[in-house]
Structures
1.
Amino acid sequence: MKTLCSILVAFLLTGLEANAQITGYALDEDPVFTATVAQHLHYPATAIRGSVYGRFYVKFSIDSTGSLQNIAVLYPQISPKIAKSLGFEYELINSLRQVPRLTSRYRGSYILPVAFVYINYNEDSKPRVPTNTLPEKYLDNSLILNEVKVVGRSDMYRSLRPLSGNAPASRQVVLF
């Protein structure tokens, strides 16, 4: 039994080492990548105005020159009209387009989870954290990075709200 456990542990550790060699370095720990995303990724004003929150998964690749390519929202897939009116996809894609050329050691395919967390002070002060997860059918050989959280509050952009200035009830984007 001990021999079987030892072989199993050795096999698992070997698999982890091999995976680490394939993925190379941790992109989500790269100071240029994280600082650029943090600087350019904002909660869309139209989504705050509508009290909408959600978790999005953005897929992209880094080529041999270190450039980000093929940036696209993988999940959830919402209608283009709603996507345009809420502004989440624009913010996500635009912020990743701002990332300068990185080192080629990050070459590969990635999925970046981004949670737009909403605090609606008209309901209570609890953050509305998205509950959706990435379905298995979207998983491939891409490396899933650590989630980025962007917080929006109902007291932001009050001048954009009609009449009362009060925020409507909070809604998660996957329900559209």
Note: Residues 36 and 53 are 22 Å apart (CA to CA).
2.
Amino acid sequence: MFETAKTVATDPLIGLMELYGEDRRADKLDLSVGAYRNNSGEVFIMNAVKEAEARLVKNQTSKSYVGMAGNPQFNAAIENLVLGPLSGDGAMVVRTCQTTGGSAALRLLGEMIAKINGGAKVWVPDVTYANHVPILAASGCRIRIYPYYDPASSELLFEQLLTVLETACEGDVLLVQASCHNPTGANLTRDQWRELTEMVVRKRMLPFFDVAYLGFGEGIDEDMAGLREMAIAVDEAMIAVSCSKTFTLYRERTGAAILFGRDRGSVDRAFGNLIDSARCMYYMPPDHGAAVVAEILTDVTLRSQWERELRHMRERLKSLRTALATCLERFCGDDRFAYLDRQSGMFSLVPVAGRNSAQLREESGVYVPADGRINIAGLAESDIPMLARALCRTPALKSGRS
């Protein structure tokens, strides 16, 4: 049987990681993988996470199964973190399933859409997280694309977004990243959130929020403000949550799929379909990461420590963005990279797509995916001049200078 298998392309990010590991140059820089590094280049573990783990090791008395919906304390805590006051709103029915990372949440929610409303189209941004379309398509969803971002001008295409979404049908699903957009770093303003909410309500679309970088933009409540404003205006919605970056739990694969709506019976039936997909996929999620998050979010001291660490990570990202934009202005002789300072989160796009990204790697030792996405959180302060010089030497930037 195996001889009939077709060759599948390797994940390009994994390929870049392998090339980086084989590169013997002393001066090299990996900005491809989406992990937050400190100024020493380490993908560290938060101190709040270490303390929570120590408590669990000391106090945990069983490794028994937790059920298909996962850790109930985690589920309640993550609902409160994401939805804030809405999680306790008696008019809203909320159901949460712990998942094996944010990717599994996307897959489960995608399967639920295909199972209970197979005629619906899922509208996805033209520039988005690389796994959105593959995961949702593999789930059986019908994908449609809406314009979001123009790499040439480094600006949101909000008017075009609204124009295209006017063609959506009632019951269609709108996928939107709640904050710190991957890969662009360009986010909706509060006014744009309100305008998009008005359209979603009027068109009777179903919002599908992806929350992967909570707290990395402006703060926890600030990053969730648009999501919460839309959530309170619609009859039902769903959320995929990742704890990988926000809690530095990457390989613990900790995430959640959240459903909420106003009709208890409808939400419960949809949640039953979600749980059934989980049963057929992995049965139940691993508990460790979820137990860590629950310990942090339900303990006043640990929660305060985690928020301080998250604030430091956020402020460092902002500082790196400012420093990189300033250095690029000095080396390139213009302000074309000023947008980096306006954007937020771990990622932004730089104009080195395709062959230029390969040239950047071969000539300067800077590893960037073919779409030009750079991981700002992969930089140390001392790396900024190296990156700025390398970017300004690429043909795309040289030819664009006045």
Note: The mean pLDDT is 95.
3.
Amino acid sequence: MMLPKPSLKRSSAAGFTLIEVLVVVIIVGILAAIAAPSWLAYATRQRMNAVESDLVEVYKQAQQQAIAQRREVVVQIDEAAVLPTAVVDGVPQVLGPNDLAPGAIALVVDASVANEITFDYQGTLRGQETNLPYVVNIEPSTGSQEQCVIVATILGNLITTNDGAQCGTPTL
């Protein structure tokens, strides 16, 4: 006579409990909360560096254009624009990365000087002797960091810095 085989039932207790899942979610949330501010600061710094680099390039190209075409070239900072914008001979050029949010970064020129500079046919600054150094501040909407581009001499020498004190009162 054959004995019936005992049935081998396996319990279906595979997987995680609700408490284990909640603990993991809470730990991930805490780590994200710690990392998010430094990530946002890093992203803002990278965007500001891109705007600074583009502004330096605009000034250099305007100076080279003035020399090559033997005429005056005017570069104006459009402080009212929602995106950082430089206007070269009436043609606006948006500075920085394409994904820059409106109002995230602003270009600010000291109110006591004109917001434009003119390169003459030799590539030197015309009529700017009393306004030097000419400082364009690059400021994020958070106001936490500051960078600037300084047109230091009548020859159009450019200095970039991310020292807020140097931007406020440049020493050359």
Note: The domain at 21-168 is CATH 3.55.40.10 (minor pseudopilin epsh fold).
4.
Amino acid sequence: MAFVPQGQTESARRSGNGKRLLIVSAYFPPAVGGVESYVLGLAKAMSARGCRVTVLTTGSLGLKRPAQDAVEGVSVLRLPVLFKVSYTPLHPLWPFWVRQFLAREKFDVINVHTPVPGLADLVAAQSPVPLVVTYHAASLLKDDARLLNVLISIYGLVERGLLRRADQVLAVSPFVADRLQERSGRTVDVLPNALNGRLVAPVAHRLREQRFTAAFLARLDATHGWKGLSLVLQALDSYRQLYGVLDVDLVVIGDGDSRTRYEREAEALGLERFVTFVGHAEGARKFDLLREAEVMITYPTTANDAFPTVFLEAWASGMAVVSADIGAIPSVVADGETALLARPNSPIELAQTLRRMAEDRGLRERLADHGRARLVDNFTWEAVAASFDHQLDELIEARS
């Protein structure tokens, strides 16, 4: 595994040299999610380096034919979706459209993002140029979904073919890289999640001694219940029962088909005064909301999160982080230095961790400062794109 953004060679700093790069992702903004944010950030950073970038993705269910648009200056081709299996979009005409598109556009290199099955596998099978596979999850398996897990296991056969075809395999965290390497036998390098360096706010510590505002940022839909909002609400209730007071106000940023259920859960626990649902927010409004809070709570119940973008957004906003000791998270943060980690699936332990935050303003400030420094040193798109650009040049040169 390799990714060292500091001390780059001169060749890693050079421009993208006009190479034509196709990035493939099942979903892309305005769709919301960690993979979507990663792909947009990478596409913009590679464009800034001089690459000619196109993103191939899917459109809404109502789209009838392939359509072109642009997102923040990035050229996008969206393919129609006829139906979905769980979170996987599909259409029987994709092979025809993809074949036409690749024949017409003549890309120099293709980067597919997975593990959402379907589109990435199809493009990889038809790729006539160097292929880079970027993997975003430690596991696709889901709790309490036996039939779906059977289908996912069968898809593993297709996935092995995808990884065999790849000229290079990347993962977004060391945890994901290790597990993918174990099951595939391929060398897997790390190209981590990142954030635009210009989003990093100047340090501005809050003045409150004990009571603080925390933020929870996620999609509030049924497919993302594993993000753990129900457990966070239970932790606030446990906090009040354990300590006779609740020193935490929670702002929930996000929307989806489960929002009403979460609002009812908060009401049933008597938390209406302490929990505010503000709906979906992006761009400047999202960061304004984050900068009004002191602590980011992210508490996933499974190992699905490969590298939570919310960590970077929190550190950029001067926030401390509280999370779960699960999956990739311990490989991304240092417990007690850049975040506090609680035992997963334990509302009581999460409540105790939040109490530590409430009782020690200095701890909140130290965690925020160390997290911000880690972001600036390691996780800006400018540094990540420079490394990726160099890797692509080597792949293209090896094929020529």
Note: The chain has two domains: 10-194+380-399, 198-378.
